[in-house]
Write a structure and sequence with these properties.
transmembrane helix, transmembrane, DUF2509
Length: about 140
């Protein structure tokens, strides 16, 4: 009788340990799933922004000291340029993706040549190049 109780207790202990291990594994998998979903969302935003920037670089632009924007509503793309000085122009572009609250905006330096965008070599920017916040706000 005592042997049966000890065996039953040992089986229950193994069962409890198995449940604890599976619970910890489930928590890790939930966290990994969240990280993968976040990364997929970022990659979709980045692809939309790159597409918007490529589209914007093919458009005809005029030089102006205020933001000029052009939209491609079917794709949700938005490209804007601002002439800074000495024919230096900055382009900001983003694309809308489903379920996104704030779009990822890509910035790039360039120039205008007969209303055509020419990107500056190594002109990619990680953030808005202006120190004044109001100059970084794009028109809606």
């Amino acid at each position: 009788m005592e042997r049966g109780n000890a065996t039953l207790g040992f089986v229950l202990l193994l069962f409890a340990l198995g449940i604890l291990m599976l619970s910890g594994l489930q928590q890790q998998l939930n966290h990994q799933r969240f990280l993968v979903a976040s990364e997929i969302g970022f990659l979709k935003q980045y692809a939309a922004a790159v597409s918007a920037q490529a589209w914007g670089s093919q458009l005809s632009w005029t030089s102006a000291q205020t933001w000029q924007c052009q939209k491609q509503p079917e794709q949700g793309w938005n490209a804007c340029i601002l002439t800074v000085e000495n024919n230096e122009v900055v382009m900001a572009a983003h694309g809308k993706t489903q379920g996104q609250q704030t779009p990822l905006t890509l910035w790039q330096w360039g120039t205008l040549d007969h209303s055509r965008w020419i990107s500056t070599p190594h002109g990619w920017l990680d953030t808005c190049p202006f120190t004044e916040v109001f100059r970084c706000l794009l028109p809606q």
